[in-house]
Amino acid sequence: MKTILAADIGGTNSRFAHFESNQHKVLTLVNTKWLPTTGAKSFPQLLDQLKTSNFTLQPDKADIAVIGIAGPVEHNSYSAPPYIPWAVDLNGDSCSNTFKHSILINDFVAQAYSCRSPIGKRALKILAGQMLAEQTVGVLGAGTALGKAILTPTTSGDFLALPSEGGHAYFPFISPREFSFQEFYREKSGLQEITGNLVVSGKGLHYIHWFLTGEKLEPEEVSARFTAESDTLAWAAKFFGRVCRDFALEAMTRGGLYIAGGVAAKNPELLTHENFRAEFLHSSTMGGLLAEIPVFLMENQDSGLWGAAFHGQQVLQKK
Known about the structure:
Blueprint: E1 2-9, E2 13-21, E3 27-36, H1 43-51, E4 64-69, E5 78-79, E6 88-89, E7 102-106, H2 107-114, H3 118-121, E8 124-127, E9 137-142, E10 146-153, E11 159-164, H4 176-189, H5 196-199, H6 202-213, H7 219-224, H8 231-251, E12 257-260, H9 262-266, H10 269-272, H11 274-281, H12 287-291, E13 295-297, H13 303-318
Parallel strand pairs: 1-4, 4-7, 9-12, 12-13
Antiparallel strand pairs: 1-2, 2-3, 5-6, 8-13, 9-10, 10-11
Helix pairs in contact: 2-13, 6-8, 8-11
């Protein structure tokens, strides 16, 4: 039996999980622990908080630690994420003796691996299609920001996840009314580059609702007011569908498109709204292809932990 410490370090929360992997490649979740990311002044301090909590696995006892983080990763060991006030350096003096074996990966690389974990197999189908084996899988999701990654099978029978920072690309507004929203967002936020990170995240719900109604509400307050007639819901669903469509075409996700992240998991009506389906399928040239791509919702908010553990299991099997 091998033990795996999985972590998902996000802009708001940091999640940790204790997994076990047996000789039959069965992953078992033993325990989880959530800690506020901003409650620590550094990654080592966050680990100290984990050690003194009721978590069932001490970091130095795990056979492997796989840590997903919301930012670009260098050399599988370093990241200075844009939405977290501190960096993670697994080779630094304060971390070098913390783990037996550790790997740092982008958080949506972890989400990509989760598509082939038990959690991915239980994902909720949102749009029907024909999933093709041995084809590229896409995963995206919004929380504090918008994450993307793709998963591709390898000749050895494993899976390789490839990172992306596509959430920092400009969001494609396409109508005069949407251009007005773009200018509103710029004026109210003081930002000139309105990216996907800003539109389909929790922050986006805040600005969409403010633009349409004049009310300044927190994202949780906005989603609490979602009804079938909600203009805010209609706009947010349309924008989410557009992001998903563009990514499905860019990555040719014939193996399926999976949606993770807190915004969709907490507000599944964004994906079941007619505007999501209509926008996802809207293409004068590729509508037929899009109709063949199945879309799934990863409802479990610990999906990133399962993905990190799945990757750790793959690495351990090669040792």
